[in-house]
Amino acid sequence: MATSTYPPETFWGMASAIDIYDCTPEIIRDADAIRRFVVELCDLIEMKRFGKTQVIHFGEDEKVAGFSMTQLIETSLISGHFANLTNTVYLDVFSCKPYPPETVRQFAQHFFGGISSRLNVTYRH
Question: Any idea which UniProt keywords this protein has (predicted)?
Answer without folding.
Answer: Autocatalytic cleavage, Decarboxylase, Lyase, Polyamine biosynthesis, Pyruvate, Schiff base, Spermidine biosynthesis, Zymogen
